[in-house]
Amino acid sequence: MALIVAFDHFWYAVLVPHGLQIPLGFRLGLNAGWALMFFYVISGFLISLSLDTKYPPGSDGTIRFYQGRVTRI
User: Fold this and answer.
1) What is the C-alpha to C-alpha distance for residues 9 and 68, in angstroms, rounded to an integer?
2) Do 10 and 3 contact (CB within 8 A), yes or no?
3) How far is the CA of 49 from the CAs of 18, 37, 43, 61, in angstroms?
4) pLDDT tens for residues 13-65?
């Protein structure tokens, strides 16, 4: 998905202005917008799963979860 987003940026910033065309079959019918939405869905699912399984229920677990997120960011 990240490669599709990167390619779409390259496509519109470099290839289109120079009139170059290449086959787009490798994108499997996706474009950058769809790829980005799928990425958000998958990452939201994984973050929710992490919150549910790794941290204890209640405010203590929620605080630890957000501390971990801030550290990662």
Assistant:
1) 32
2) no
3) 45, 18, 10, 13
4) 988 888 887 777 766 677 788 888 888 999 899 988 888 888 888 888 889 98
